[in-house]
Design brief:
The protein is mostly helical. About 70% of the residues lie in helices and about 0% in strands. The chain has three helices and no strands.
Length: about 80
């Protein structure tokens, strides 16, 4: 089995890099949730031929059922609790 380039990183560097990636992931996920909220508010999924936001996210965007539902729940929660 071929070793990943990560194999050559020290434990400290690997840990630091992972922490930075997680921060970036959270920032990106926050932006995605905001976009999903806007798609939902505009009912934009209808213009792409999807009867629901869920179908739009699973069929057009490519999320799994569970991932799509979690993001929809989060997006709708931000409408109720913007903080």
């Amino acid at each position: 089995m071929k070793k990943s380039f990560l194999f050559f990183l020290t434990n400290l560097i690997l840990d630091e890099n992972l922490q930075e990636l997680v921060v970036s992931e959270r920032e990106i996920l926050t932006e995605i949730i905001i976009y999903i909220r806007e798609v939902d508010c505009r009912k934009m999924f209808l213009s792409f031929g999807h009867p629901s936001l869920f179908e739009y996210l699973t069929k057009r965007i490519g999320y799994s059922n569970a991932s799509a539902q979690r993001r929809i729940d989060a997006a709708r929660l931000t409408q109720d609790v913007p903080e």
